[in-house]
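Support request, please re-run this one:
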Amino acid sequence: MIIVLKPEVKKEQITLFQASLEEKYNVKVNTWIGVESTVLGLIGDTTQVDEDWVNAQEIVESVKRVQEPYKKANRKFHPDNTVIELPTGQKIGDGNLCIMAGPCSVECEEQINYVAQRVKDAGATFLRGGAFKPRTSPYSFQGLKAEGLDLLKGARKVTGLPIVTEIMRASHIDMFESVDIIQVGARNMQNFELLKELGKTDKPILLKRGLANTIEEWLMSAEYIMAGGNNKVILCERGIRTYETATRNTLDLSAVPVIKKLSHLPVIVDPSHATGKAWLVESMAIAAVASGADGLMIEVHNDPKHALSDGAQSLTPDQFDVVAKRAFALKQAYEEIINA
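Re-run finished. Output below.
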């Protein structure tokens, strides 16, 4: 249930009303104070809440019942867009285009440092790279693990780029203490025990959509993290599994405006994993920007032909230079059009 309060309501009135709701109906009340209005979100069993009693309160403007099972991730509870800001100053969801770029797998110090510098020079604001790699085959390269994390930290020290890398299990959380954004991969989107533990952290969490999950299931996974107290969630559309075989996955760009309507959380797009083909990355990245995405995640490798993981979908640094330049140009033009 959502209760919208009148604009002139005072802080003391809000506090008293919130306390009375929690005591009278045994619900949890989240308060969101916006520029033009104050919204109270009631979480719990709201079936017993008397709408007539609520509407009768002097400070109440309106009451709405929410049917969606996700509450904290719901835009109705939080009308303004959430902006994720890192201690280093980078922001996601503030209207600018952020780009996370780097190799699928960290392979060696020379490789990650070179790629990190090149993507930074092209305008990337985050360095992505896999230290732990979930692979379909048990015989495929599984990543450098702890050594890979150290190499990512070294590249961050050289370039200043915050690092984004994937976690595989809850027992690894301590190892990720110095990681700037923790990524939950598609295969772990519904690893609820992991999500619960990440909800106890204060780290931004990049939550990728599962291989065959609905948008509601995706938002419910975000809800697990937020229910634990961590509201710093970034959603990432990376394509879903369909019957189509021409691409690795089917990139669902309609998910971007749908998420924007349903949720206040920022959403980025990964055209690399979505298509599985380097020659498709640019067109899908441009389309993602046009769809309103807050950012892109793009795989870049110094030598894709010899990459230990996903070389076929990786851009060279020179190719990334072109894609980044065009994506930023389109973003600027897009903002000028919608703000005209």
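The chain has ten helices and 14 strands. The longest strand covers residues 28-33.
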